[in-house]
Amino acid sequence: MIEFKGELSEKCKNVFFKRHNKTLFLVCNLTWIIIDIPIVLIGISMSEYSYIWYIIAALFCISALLFCVPALNPQKKAFTDNLPQRITIKDGQIIKDGTGEDCYATGKLENVKKVVDEGDWYLIVFYFPYKISDCICQKDLITQGSIEEFEKMFDGLIVRSKQNNLN
Fold it and tell me: What's the Cα-to-Cα distance from 119 to each of 80, 85, 93, rounded to whole Å?
């Protein structure tokens, strides 16, 4: 059995919060583009009252952009609540547990796609549809087992992060 237990470091939280913000920004922008293009095309094709369609498109665009701006959409508290407090690996199962209401999740070792070595922590990535988000194992929080056991368990699946390769 291998267990990582405790509060993640601020550096780790900040890295994952930045990634979360980038993903949120991308999803919001793609959403408003996909919805606004048909609205603008309808406005172009309408001879009467086309300005209404342009106003609707502009309002949707503005609301989507405001949702994407992290300062206006403070999600850091909810995001950090869903980061793991404990990750246990035993009997072919990975159990992620935290303080948030959606933080408890289990997955099988056979569904692990890769383990990204981020330097101070590992990120366990699962195949779709068995995804468990933010399965983070900070190396200095190991309470049972050892890093060598962990690396042996995931032999062949561990890849170094691109950010670590730049250092």
Answer: 20, 19, 24
Distance of CA 98 to the CA centre of its chain: 15
Rounded to 10 deg, the angle between the 10-45 and 50-68 helix axes is 180
Nearest to 84 by CA among 146, 157, 138: 138
> Six-digit token pair at 103?
């933080």
CA separation for the pair 26, 23 (Å, rounded)? 5
Question: Cα–Cα distance between 98 and 15 in angstroms, integer?
Answer: 18
Task: Locate 26 and state its tokens.
Answer: 């991308």
pLDDT digits (tens, 9 = 90+) for 95-142: 888 776 667 888 898 999 999 998 889 989 999 888 877 788 888 988
> On the CB side of 61, how many CA atoms lie within 13 Å of its CA?
12
> What is the rounded distance in angstroms from the CA atom of residue 36 to the CA atom of residue 46?
15
Q: Which of 135, 124, 76, 92 is nearest to 1 (CA)?
A: 92
> pTM of whole model > 0.85?
no
Among 144, 158, 148, residue whose Cα is nearest residue 90 = 144
Domain boundaries, the chain: 2-8+84-162, 10-77
